[in-house]
Every structure is written in structure tokens, then in C-alpha cells.
Amino acid sequence: GLAQRFAAEGEDDRPRDTGGGLIEKREKVRTSDRAGGPVNAPNRYAQLMLMVLPIAVFRFWGAENKKIKRYALITSFLIFCGVLLSYSRGGFITLSLMVMCLTALRYIRMKQLLTTFAVVIVLMPIAAPGYFARLDTIRGIEALFNENAEVKADGPTRGRLTEMLAAFLCYLDHPILGVGPGQYTPYYAYDYQKSDEIAFRHIDKGRRAHILYFELMAETGTFGFLIFMGIAFYVFRRLWHIRKEATGMRPDIANMATAFCFSMLAYFGTSIFLHIAYQRYYWFLIALAVAAIRVYGDELRRDDEVELAAPTDKPETLAFSQN
Fold this sequence. Notes:
This protein is mostly helical. It has helices at residues 42-62, 66-85, 89-104, 110-127, 131-136, 155-173, 184-187, 189-193, 212-246, 251-270, 279-309, and strands at 4-5, 10-17, 22-29, 35-37.
């Protein structure tokens, strides 16, 4: 059950040019080609793989043992292939954001970035055929705001945007405490999705928001949203503080603290396109991050105590007053 796939083909709406203009036409798409992982959900599987990818990559960068370094490299490669096999557009966007952040922090040099990009261009058609065609649909977002766009938005894009904006409208009507956890989709979503202001696509039943932030705001209001994000911000801030303190002194600790920071970035980046579900994986990540804060914090304090207790190289001198 760790590598599930959809058994049946799904359907998708895609506009096709028939010569006389763009019309809507139903077309079969092979959802069975997308890896679903242990949860049988391709986009969620990409999110999970992106959460563990930084830990493997930073283990590769920080390991001194060649055997561990080799295993970490192989693991990173396999995890990356898992992301590709999910065919997740949100996962690709989040991965690109993570690479840009690593480049800004100088973990990746520009030469390495270009080399990696070239390798991915060659590897992608082999590891995940058709991924480029799927990524090309991202350009359809422009058509939502520009009628003269070259590529028209497909059905899932229009549907998800409708679901996102519907949750935000619900939050605006219930800004303090929200409508209650688990209450938005069955009791409020359908009515808000029908609003002419945001309905880019007709949806005949209540659906979840496909964005963590708006759905959380709609269900728990401003108070619940701030508490949830406050926990994440506190953990991230403590990890970043340990990273800064360990840089130069303990590169192994600095690397792992940075890895957990990027794991959280992966989760919250993909959550722009996914509502909160399978929470056990997120809270497990938070638990590991908090454990890392405790363990690495204690190690850094012990190192400081040892350094302070160590005898100085220079002999002590006594000052005498002169008469």
C-alpha cells in the first residue's frame, strides 16, 4: 500500500481549437499514470515527498562519511523521482521556489543550478513522460484574467480557483471564529461556490477549498488561523535561530536545522494549492522539528560550556602595584 495508483481513468475539461474558435470538449486523461503514494492522492504524495526531500539533500551535503553520503544521494534521487511521478503542478512550483531559496542562501551556486536544470530536462521525459505537457497547463492561469491569453485555463484550474475564492468569501462573512471545524464543506461550500463574483466554473456539490489558508480561515476564523500559523512560525523561528548559532561552529547541526526549515517551507508552499488533510504527516514533521530544537539546542549549550571551561593558552599574569 505504499505505492498506490488510481485504477480507472478520469475525465478533464480542456478547451480545444476547432478552427472556428475555442469550444469545450470532454477528453479522457490517464489519472492512473500518476503515483498516489501511501494516501492514493498524487498531489498529496508530492507534498509528502517534498517534505522529506530537504532532509535527504542536507544529509548528503553535510555527511563526512562517504557511505552515508552515497546513500543520501541515492535517497534524494528516488524521492525526487517520486515528486515527478506524481505529475503535481503545485509540487513543481513549490520545488522551484525551494531551489530559488537555496540559491539565495548560497547552498546552490549558479553553475550547479544550471547543471541541475540541464539534468532535469534530460531526466524528466524518462522518469515522468508527459510531465512537460502537464506543466504547460500552468500558463492557462493567465486566461482567467486575460481573454486574449494564448493558452486557455483547463477545467481543474477554473474549478480550484472557484473553490479557493468561495472559502475566502465565507471567511469574510464569519471573520472572528469561522463556521466551525469541518463545517464549511458540507454546509457552506456549495452556496458560496455559486456566487457570480467568483464562479469560474459551475460546481454542482460542495467541495473543499484546495487551499489550507482560506479553508482554515473559513472554519476557525482569525483566532484559529493565527494560532495554527503561530505554532508553525514559532517552530520555524527557533530552527532558524539554531541554524544561525551553529553556522561555523557545528555545520552538521546547521544543516539539519536548515533541512527542517525547508521541510516546513515545502508543506506551506504546497498548501497554497491543497487544503489541510492527512494531518498526521504535518504534525509528525512538527514533532520531529521540535525534537531537533531540543536536542540541537542542548548540544550547542554543552559546546559553549566546554569552550568556557577550557583552559586558555596564555598563562595567567598577576598585576603588582608599584611603590
